[in-house]
C-alpha cells in the first residue's frame, strides 16, 4: 500500500490537478522546481512502469525449472539467507568459462586440457547484460539449455523463411538427398564442411544477387589480456567466438534503404567451367571498381510478437553491439587470406576435428549438386594439380603421398556412378577440411574493401519488416564491451546485476526464472520499500511545517 500511495504522489507532482487515491495534496506543496522534479524522477522508487500479470507456467516449463533450480541453488545458496541465491560467483568455481561453460580439466597423465563442456563461445553469449547478468550467470552454471518458449520458435521459422527465399535449395540437390538418404553424413565433422561450403557460395551469392543470409563468421577472445583478438591466434587461452550473420546487403552508397544491388561480374568463363579459381580472379577485379559506389551493410534480424521495438535500452544496445561484433569479425577475416586460412584451421581443431580426414564422397556429390563451382577444383585435387593458394598447395606438396583410392565406391547408385565416373578412381589429394578453409578464406577477403561502417537492425513481425534501426560502427565501444565481457567470462570481475530500482525490478525480474529465490531482487525490493517509507515521512513532516 505504501508503494501505491507514493506512486500516486509522484503523479500528483507532475499533474497537480489529478485525483489522488490518498490524502489531498495542496498545489502549494506540489509546485516544485524543475531541479526538484528531476531529483524525484531519479529516485529508484518512482521509475514506475505498468505491471503485467505473470504468464501461466506450463507443465513443460515447470519440469524445466524443477530440473534447473536445484542445480543453481546448490552452487549459489546464500550463507546469510539460505532460502535465496547469492549474487557472487561460487568460491569453488570462480571462472564462468573454464569452470562452468567449457568445464576444462587437465589429464593427469598427458597433461593435456580436456573439455567436458563447450570449448567455445558465441557472439550472443558475450552479451551478458542484454537482460540481467546475474540471470545469465545462473543459467551458465546450471549447464541446462535455455527453455525454448513460443516466440523463439516463431523467430526461428521467420529466419528460415527469409533464408529459403534468398538461398533456395536446387531441385537436383534435394533429389540427390532423397536418393542417397543416410549415405549423406550429417555428423558434426561433415556439418562443419557443409557450413563452410555454404558460407562460401553465399558470399558468392552476395555479389550475384546483392544479398546473403545466415553467413558464418568467427573471432577469438584472449583470456589473458581480456580483449578481442585482432592478430594471429597464438595461445591456447585464445577462445573461439562464433557467430552467424543474419543479413549481408550489397547496396549503393547513396541509397538509404537496404535495396540489394548485384555486382556486375564478368565471370562467364569461370562459371561455364565451374572453376572457383577463375571466379575469385574475376571477383578481385570487379570489386576494386565497385568500391567507389557500393558498400556491404551488416544487419541483424529481430522478430517480435507485435510491431513494437523493445522498450528496454539494454536490449537495443545489446543488439547493436552484436552487429558490431559481426562487422569486426568480417573485417578481421578479410585482411589476409593466409592468416584467415590458419584461423579457420584452428577453428576446426578447437572443435576436435582431423584436418586431413577425407570428406565423404556422398557429401561432396551433394555439394556439387548444390553449386557446381568446385568441380574444377575437385579435378585438380584428383590429379595433384595446385589450386592456386600457396599455403594449401605448399602443405600438399610437403605431404606428398602415393595416389590413394578415395573410396567413392561407397556410392552404390548406378546412375551417379556413371554421371560422376571421372571421380571413381585413385586420387592424389582427397578433399579435406583444409580445402574448404582455403576457398572460404579467399571469399572472406573479397569483403574487406566494401565493408560499410553503417550497420542495421531489422525488426520483423508476422513476415513484415516493420522497422529498421541504422547506426554506425564504433570500434572503441566494441573494444570496451569485449573487455568487460571477457572480464566476466574469465572470472576477473564481479557479477553486475541490474540496478536495484523499482523500474528495473518490475521490468526485468518478472520475466526471470529466479525471481522468487534471488537475493539481489529481495534486497533491492526491501531497499525501495524502505526509501518509500522515508519519503512518505518527509512529505508528511513538510506538510506539518507548512501548516504551522
TrEMBL record:
On whether Cytoplasm is a keyword of this UniProt record, the answer is no
Q: What's a Pfam family this protein contains?
A: Exo5
* Cofactor(s) required for function per UniProt: [4Fe-4S] cluster; Mg(2+)
Q: Would you kindly state one Gene Ontology biological process term found in this protein's UniProt entry? A: interstrand cross-link repair
Keywords attached to this entry? 4Fe-4S, DNA-binding, Exonuclease, Hydrolase, Iron, Iron-sulfur, Magnesium, Metal-binding, Nuclease
Which molecular function terms from Gene Ontology are attached?
A: 4 iron, 4 sulfur cluster binding; DNA binding; single-stranded DNA 5'-3' DNA exonuclease activity
Output the superkingdom of the source species: Eukaryota
The protein's matches in InterPro entries, at most eight in alphabetical order, are given as: EXOV (IPR019190)
Q: Which GO CC annotations does the UniProt entry carry? A: mitochondrion; nucleus
Query: Which family does the similarity line name?
Result: Belongs to the EXO5 family.
Question: How is the quaternary structure described?
Answer: Monomer.
PANTHER family tied to this protein: EXONUCLEASE V
Q: What is the official name of this protein in its record?
A: Exonuclease V, mitochondrial
Q: Which organism is it from?
A: Lachancea meyersii CBS 8951
